[in-house]
# Entry
Amino acid sequence: MYFEKPKYKVMTNFSPYKMDSETHPWMGWDRYQKALSMLEAANDDFDVADCFAILREVSQTVCPTVVSMVYDVTERTVYWCEKRSWEEVQKFDFREV
# Structure
């Protein structure tokens, strides 16, 4: 069986199954769906800044997001910010190792 390579992947640290959001406000099904729709609407020039725009939009507030990461496979570089400090993005370039 052959599966076509997907255009993107969405990783999550919660179960994407729908549950009672009042009992389990951290479930995030709505955030997961929002990320998918933003990715589906993205242009071909989608870049690291666009990734962080999505992460910012879907970050948690009930159980606050601690780390948000983007890996640029072309540049072999990982970018991250901590505690939703979106203006303080750090980076590590694997080409320098």
Notes: DSSP finds two helices and three strands in the chain. Helices lie at 29-40, 48-58.
